[in-house]
Amino acid sequence: MKFPVLLLLLLQCNTSSAFITKLSSPTTSSALSASGGKLSVRPIGIGSAAPQTLITNSDLESVHDTTDEWIRTRTGIQSRRVLVHDGTRKVIDATAKEEDEKSGEKEVPETLRTLGIEAAQHALTMSGVDPSSIDVVICATSSPDDLFGDAPSIAHAVGCDSSKVVAFDLTAACSGFLFGIVTAGQYLNNGSKNKNALVIGADALTRWVDWDDRNSCILFGDGAGAMVLTSDGGEDAKEEDGFGILGYAMHSNGGGYDDLKCIYRGEPKKITTPGDGTIVQDGSYDLMSMNGRKVYSFATREVPAVLEEALEQAGMTVDQVDHLLLHQANIRIMEVVAERLGMPMEKVITNLYKYGNTSAASIPLALDEAVRTGRVKKGDVIACAGFGAGLSWGAAILRWG
């Protein structure tokens, strides 16, 4: 979790939640942590979007010494969606004039930003919240189209009111969406008149995948998901209905930085200055590197613990949870976490097999499908957990609707 996000949470903390921070040595189990209880926000809309290009395990067999069976049994993944160089898709332009014949529909390049826009539009439609009523937009991503952030342009594209909305990106890798909804919850609970938040999780990590490495290229896919949260309980809402985030816990530990990273690598470039000249950097990022065994060990150790911590903050037990929704990284991790919590796999929400590891998009992608198919119903309690580079990890207990 980046320091500015922690600072934002600290400044916005109020009496509705207990907020604890701990600073310690990078070698300890948790260099930075935050946890709290109920937040008076409700998740009322969910949406998602995925690239149109599909790569199956069979496709990868043609370029690598691997098989569909080998990939499925070790990861649970059968296919993944990827952004391609010349991809396009049709989107609704909320900024278009009403007299336009196709109501603002236009064909645009298929990018992470346009996926984020589409996911946000679906979430807003489900929620019934007018885009002009959104007070904050958070885009959780590690791979924005624009280095300076995609959230402001997404907010504009979906029709948010530029005179009032605050929009910014948040980087916390695969934990990003979970960190984003907690940050949004704190923002809406800071005693102001802010009522509605739009949180987007979007990543295109296939941009940084080593496609020559069969152990890593099989894992990742691209996608976007979005959630609308509101602090407006409605006229007939009971007090307990207003709590959509029942408890949460978030952690990061830079001691595991080398286990999963994507590092900037600059090439020297000489520019003309007085004297001998100045050497600056001109470059991009390396491909992702990951120590799979260490990441697996980290996830299976910390995720059950952080879920139990969030449940404790919520004053709940595992038996009161209707669904377990984990970052969609690997089916084996999900199985171990569920087993250690004493939860049957029937309660685990997953669509990993269709999309692969979509980083910050994975939780809303899976939740969107579960809500739209009727698996998740209003009032259901969902235990969510994310984990990833940083290292970062966290959990939130949500009541849907």
TrEMBL record:
Listed Gene3D superfamilies: 3.40.47.10
Keywords: Fatty acid biosynthesis, Fatty acid metabolism, Lipid biosynthesis, Lipid metabolism, Signal, Transferase
Domain (Beta-ketoacyl-[acyl-carrier-protein] synthase III N-terminal): residue spans on this chain: 168-254
Signal peptide: 1-18
Family annotation (InterPro entries): ACP_syn_III_C, ACP_syn_III_N, FabH, Thiolase-like
Alphabetized GO MF terms: transferase activity
Pathway: Lipid metabolism
Beta-ketoacyl-[acyl-carrier-protein] synthase III C-terminal domain segment(s): 311-400
Gene Ontology terms: biological process: fatty acid biosynthetic process
Family membership noted in the UniProt record: Belongs to the thiolase-like superfamily. FabH family.
NCBIfam families: PRK09352.1
Name of this chain's protein: Uncharacterized protein
Species, as recorded: Discostella pseudostelligera
